[in-house]
């Protein structure tokens, strides 16, 4: 089974690409979904986060208050490391379980949607790294249009992530998403053929 790491900056179109690949028969594993699952109410992960950071990181209904936790950890590297020490092993364990499940299926390709693949230096975990490449201005327009996020906030997120050249340097394959959705669909069809070929 071919292990594909799919990445790209905020609003580049990773979800659009992974859902198209899933329709072709790839198993898709979404790192953001797993990262949320491991700290859902009632999980040992959330209990550990509260033990470390206090009840102040919970909302009134007992869920993790992500913006609040973000304020704490992004202001202090040590706190961020503590959070990562709780979350990362659980994400790794859950990913492993999902990988086992994928291996047990007859899928030829498993796609990991990992937004911070390059930032976290995770290239070696995958057989193929696919980068969704979309110009910054286009991403700003799409994300502000579709998610109502102010343009400045999108720009700030872009600034906080790896830049285009750095991301492209890690790419085995690149999907250009500067065009229409129809053009993207064609590119993903080509990508799928390439991945199947590499899967053997
Ligand atoms: P994030 O990292 O923020 O989760 P993402 O990389 O998963 O983002 P998507 O959510 O797939 O990106 O795409 C960002 C937005 O742009 C979405 O609202 C999506 O519908 C839209 N979009 C994606 N591709 C195109 C396209 N070719 N033309 C127009 N809109 C697009």
UniProtKB/TrEMBL annotation:
It catalyses: 3'-dephospho-CoA + ATP = ADP + CoA + H(+). One of its GO terms (molecular function) is ATP binding. CDD domains: DPCK. It is found in: Cytoplasm. The lineage of its organism: Bacteria, Bacillati, Actinomycetota, Actinomycetes, Streptosporangiales. GO terms for biological process: coenzyme A biosynthetic process. Keywords: ATP-binding, Coenzyme A biosynthesis, Cytoplasm, Kinase, Nucleotide-binding, Transferase. Pfam families: CoaE. ATP binds at residues 11-16. Its main location: cytoplasm. This is Dephospho-CoA kinase.
